[in-house]
Protein 1
Amino acid sequence: MSPHDLAKDLDNLRKLSYFYYFSEAVNALILIAAVGYIAVTGFLYYLGGASLAVSLISGGPVEMANSLLDKALGAGPLFAGTVAVGSIFAIFAIAGVLFGHYTGKFQREQKHHTFCFVMAILTATSVPIGTAIGVPTIILLLREPVKKAFSDGDSVQSPPLDSGNLGLLSNLFVLYGLLSVAVSLISVLYVIAGVYGLTGNAGSTEQGSWFWPAQIIFSSLILVLSIGLSVCTILAGQFLKRKKAFVFCIITSVLISLFAPFGTILGIWSLFVLFSDPGRAAFRNNA
């Protein structure tokens, strides 16, 4: 293959890379919708917690339990289903944003041939638009001169990771984790309301007989998961500062990005830092 033909192939790859940025934008819209879905549900949950606090202050625990039964009967399963569905869509959207961004970036920079090839195969399975993008990309990536051009790109030294930005990110993770612990304690009100509802007059109704045990279990689960994620966020902040536990930091970043708006901003920012060439190199060299 002549240098002219190679240059043409690489130019075609660069043109195809912009379609991956379009895919990134579409997944970003899906992420916004999914996270917004979760955020609205979470807001209603914590707004209900504030209402329970008012009932507790004005009428005591039994009044709080009766208030919860009147206002939230059946909302527990709905809340759980909403968060579960929204989280699934959001996690896939986060993956789509990252993969779309880095596939386009690596194709333009002629780096990480295997990653680009795998993503082209996955893209080709999405008929018809993905096929129209993925198949030409696969053909171009299979050509030996193109493979060599990518190998030469992989050998380019990555710039060092900005320690100042990583330190700021680490501190924000710790701060977000501490604030999340405080917010998580709202679930304690739901647990208390469930206990008093089960042992008081509210538990004697036919609806209360099944509602209160479900309420206690569901609220306790939310409390444990929320505090657990908060602790993981604080630990991830410490690991980011020390450039340790790469996979743990990625998983924690994905999970906190489900919680808009601050968790989403912090989590996505962290993922872009971790998946960047300087980010991966810094963690790899510090292993």
Protein 2
Amino acid sequence: MKHLPKTIIRQLVADSNLGQEISEILDENGEMYKNAQSDLHKRMISAQHLLSLVASIVSDHPKLDKKFTRVITKAEEEYMPSYPPMSPITESYFTLWTLCDFAIDVVPPTTAGQFVPAFSQRFKLPGQVVSDCRAISDSRMGFYEVISQKKSIVEAREIPTQEPITFECHSGYEGREGEIWFLRIGKLPPGNISLTTPYVIQQPMVRPDIEAFFERQGISSSVSGDDKKFRRLMKRPKEKNFWHEYIFCGYTGYESGAVFLTGVPDIPETLPHSGSFVSKQAAC
């Protein structure tokens, strides 16, 4: 592993043809915004498109291609991200994992989203877009207990941090009090927005099961959301596919706007599509 050479950074931002593509992304009246539900939703769309553009440039660089694409391509082939019934790994979940969590093997580990500042100087990107890209790049998956929902506005409390949060969710799914969602939230001041389709955790997994899971990982209740160990687990666990496997093996069903899961992430016997679960059922 080594530091990313400045020559590579310069090469990545040298393509003058990117100007038009970036202009289209920043045009708020463009085709990509026709389904935007709010101003915050527009900002999310803009930032994610820019992050995706940067990621495509990074992945095409000859000195980064193998580092960046090998694991992602293998994961795509294994999990076929789409939407149920094709795959419980949704495109929104997988795309943001590739942009925000999966790091190129350099020192320090660098995600595609962390290249945006280099592009901001070359193409004079608006400060709002750059800060939104940084916020999304910094985002992570998390478990949230729903307190209430009024149309697209959800009030929730994160597990295990106990931190309350209000956010927009435009998937169309209407949550119920006490439900636990597994999703990624982007904090784009002055508001927050769900970046992924919510995974709704069904029985028998309940709040105490999630808290116990975190305790087994050495993460206590009421830990800070910025705690390094907690963030590392949610963004870059030791097993790269840990959260993919949880979703894939815990899948139980779906509807428009939500995917349903059950089971405890680190107990295969509770996940209906794991080999351990099948063996357990056969023995009953």
Protein 3
Amino acid sequence: MERKYCDFIAVQALPVTEKAELYLVTIHSNIYLRRVAEIAEALDPAEIERFVQALVALRKRGGRLFLLGVGGSAANCSHAVNDFRKLAGIEAYSPCDNVSELTARTNDEGWDTVFSEWLKGSRANKKDAVLVLSVGGGNLSKNVSANIVRALDEACERGMEIYGIVGRDGGYTRQVGTEVIVVPTVDPALLTPLAEAYQAVVWHCLVSHPDLAIQSAKWESVSTEET
């Protein structure tokens, strides 16, 4: 059966049959991609440019970049650490990459302090910066990502700059942050997948920026004739 795009109102009028379900599958993809485009249009390039210059200054002063995130954002931290180190020449780390220490601290000291204690152990200082990747940016009163909130408090005490790529209203990260990109909420039902996806869009924009990139990624250096 041929799949056709139709708007949500038209889908609602269809009977609950195999045909209707087929339309529903198709409309989800259509809506999702529209939301992706809406976020791209809503983001402010000037904010990203300021972020780039903050990272250039961080690299110039020999500061380190500590990336913090939980869940899917933790996996994004690992990917981003690679890119900041390899493509941008920034000394970057994430506690998410050390499972032994992360689980030991969780078991012995508690989940809420795993990141703040890691910053202490890393002797983080005013030359360094924290980059938070998070859907909500942390909210202590709602007990959501309390470990990020505690880490940001520790970073503030140490005089560190605070960066973020976060969703919703930016949470605590936006409140205390230096350079924070807030991914607009264009569809509450797709908050998490879009926020986490745009973490990657933004950090890839950063590491590929001419002012920050020290080399191209592998495939950009391979000629089309060789592929």
Protein 4
Amino acid sequence: MILVTTTPLAPSTPETVSLGVRTYKAAIYETLTRMIGELELPPGSRLVEADLAARFQTSKTPIREALLLLESDGLVKLEPYQGASVTWLSLEEFEELIYIQDALEQPALPRIVERITSRQLSDLARIVRRLERHRAEHNSRGYLEDGAVLHERMFGVAGFPRLVHVVMSLILHPTRRYERAFMHQFDDTWDIELGITKGRFEFVRAGDAEMAARCVREGRVAMLDLIRERLDDPAVAPFLAPRTEPVTHRVARHRVGSMVAPATANGGNGAA
């Protein structure tokens, strides 16, 4: 059992929390991953080994090991003679992460439709209702946690453990902070994200994998259009790499079709 601190890097009276992990490296990696994902350590933050060693009450060796893992996740940049810093967000990286996620998930939808049981549908419906409550309460952390559970259980139905592992590594690590910065600060993008999740579930429940995939594709287009328009927004710009010259962003206008899911999360077969 390992004790690590959970307050900011320069606390006057740091608290400690017990983590059920086996190594200091794992404890430090998991804690820093969470802090970066929650934007408690925003992009550009310097991660000084000596400060981290004091914070986690350990030597520098597990700190370096954890930073190497974070670098492999794309969350930290290590530079000779400059140390480590949290990487900046970029629209290009976010689009790449979404592209990879969809490339893995979309082909699995027909298999999920074929294999899913009424009990599994009831379980997913309960999670969707929790997501709706989190959205109504503007509870980003709860939304992200239950969203990860929904992905794991829905795509676990496909019966491909490696698929679930790769998808979850995207959702739990690099993608989370983008959702915080790009989507959950604004009602419209958060609503689109929830609409994608609900629509995909409802079409899966209706046995229509093609429409489930279409719902995701069209929702992504609308969401990314809104994000492109806001790269200079004061709520978003601080998370992006500073630039010396103004950049004009070309915005492609799209309109989402009037596609309506066949049922709501509170009704239809399979709901608890």
